[in-house]
Amino acid sequence: MELRHLRYFVAVAETLHFTRAAEMLGISQPPLSQQIQRLEHEIGTPLLKRLTRGVELTEAGRAFLNDANEIVQLADHALEKARGMARGISGQMSLGFASSVAFGAPVFDLLQRFRTRYPAMELIAREENMALLMQDLRDGLLDAAFIRLPCESSKAFNLKVIATERMMIALPAGHACSSSGTIALAQLVDETLIMFPREVAPSLYELIVSTCLRAGFTPTRFIQAPQITSSLGMVGAGCGIALVPESMCCVNNPHVTFCEIENNTLFTDIAFAWRRNNPSRTVMHLLSLISQ
């Protein structure tokens, strides 16, 4: 039994007319009649009663129609699903997010546009620190990732910068400098600096430390926070100050104040990263939206 035989039978059963069914299928009427006869012969019972002006279903035909319809619909669904996945417009895409990009509006504006353009695509998100993201992307556990630069290990991947952010100073509310709009890093020489672990994002870590050194501020008093994002909670608790991306200023913590850095040269990029070899069409669709 071939799938086309089921399609032919469903067309005849729905129109109750061989000629109209043949027109709908785009074939001539005699071959259609022959294929239905072969189907009935294979099943071993008539499915249709031939009348002067059309046909009607036999009892066996009515029972067979329900299952035949379901099989045809499942086949059509499987076909469209396979074609959609091949074109990168359906299926799944696993995306990684560095914890510190979770507040970046450009990232989520991009994902919203992607969801609007490709509603059949399921996005599976995973938030990790930079080191784990790069490893998962390298191992094929992620299709792509939104990361924060600088990042030494990112050089093994294709990168597309989607936003550049200045770093800001996060101070405990009520700090002596919290009412200032702009602060020189040298003013923080006696402050405890809350930093994420060096292994989380070594290049960004080194950038922050070197910028402090150039400003004449030698950060000797450190408290370690698990992530850049968690440092804000520690700032609010009065544990020290932190240098964070500007997008984190959207965090509504009444115990934290954000100030700009005087003569600021400390910037960080949010980038889209993907493997260089054989990127999926879905990744290419997302990349095209970034380019727009």
TrEMBL record:
Keywords, alphabetical: DNA-binding, Transcription, Transcription regulation
Pfam family, one: HTH_1
SUPFAM superfamilies: Periplasmic binding protein-like II, Winged helix' DNA-binding domain
Every HTH lysR-type domain range: 1-58
UniProt xrefs under CDD domains: PBP2_BudR (cd08451)
InterPro entries in the cross-refs: BudR_PBP2, LysR_HTH_N, LysR_subst-bd, WH-like_DNA-bd_sf, WH_DNA-bd_sf
Superkingdom field: Bacteria
Signal sequence extent: none
Transcription regulation in keyword set: yes
Presence of the UniProt keyword ATP-binding in the record: no
Family: Belongs to the LysR transcriptional regulatory family.
Name of this chain's protein: LysR family transcriptional regulator
Organism: Pantoea leporis
